[in-house]
Amino acid sequence: MASKILLVTGDAAESLEVFYPYQRLREEGYQVDIAAPTRKRLQFVVHDFVEGFDTYTEKPGYTWPADLAFAEVDPADYVALVIPGGRAPEYLRNDPEVRRIVRHFFESEKPVAQICHGPLVSAAAGVLGGRTSAAYPALEPDVTAAGATYVDGEAVVDGVVVSARAWPDHPAWLRAFVEVLRVKAPVA
Questions:
Q1: Which residues of the chain have pLDDT under 70?
Q2: Which of 19, 31, 127, 143 has CB 3.0 to 4.6 Å from 150, enough for a Cys bridge?
Q3: How far apart are the C-alpha atoms of 6 and 175, rounded to whole Å?
């Protein structure tokens, strides 16, 4: 059986930030399970950068079924965690089940990849303090309020945690995360 990676997300997650790691990690030979608040078809979004706008724009993106609900997740079954961004982390961080899951990975020193607004979830889980993390630049105050050092970088590696700002950082972010996985959680 392939090593399993958990991807936690929900409605309004950034499409590219879900599908790029989902497909790239499957390409490496991992089984990737998508967990959400409930088992349902999720509606992702597309965030784009438009000249003249002070922030990103949002449009409807792809839909995709969640494999399992957060309450069904036994994090011990997984070798690593991915936390995509988009708007989903804004409400996911309030879910006690996702905080339970995220705490397991950080406390067990299992590899974690987080991008864009994803660090809002690890901050709410109380595990970002003392770490170094990238995030969408507008989240610098949130990252520092959680006790972490914010870095404006495309692939920030802090031990087994790899973070990035947003989907334009995907190549560097996933390259660094795969390097961590090959050492800490190679494909079985």
A1: 1
A2: 143
A3: 18
Residue entry with tokens 């390409």 = 27
* Whole-number Å distance between alpha carbons of 58 and 80: 29
The torsion region of residue 68 among left (phi > 0), alpha (psi -120 to 50) and beta comes to beta
- pLDDT at site 7: 99
* Annotation marks residue 104 as catalytic: no
3-state secondary structure of 109: coil
Question: What's the farthest any 2 CA atoms get from each other in the chain?
Answer: 49
pLDDT for 1 equals 63
Find the catalytic residue in 47, 104, 117, 170: 117
* Both structure tokens of 155: 């692939």
Count of residues making up the chain: 188
Cα distance between residue 45 and residue 75, in whole Å: 26
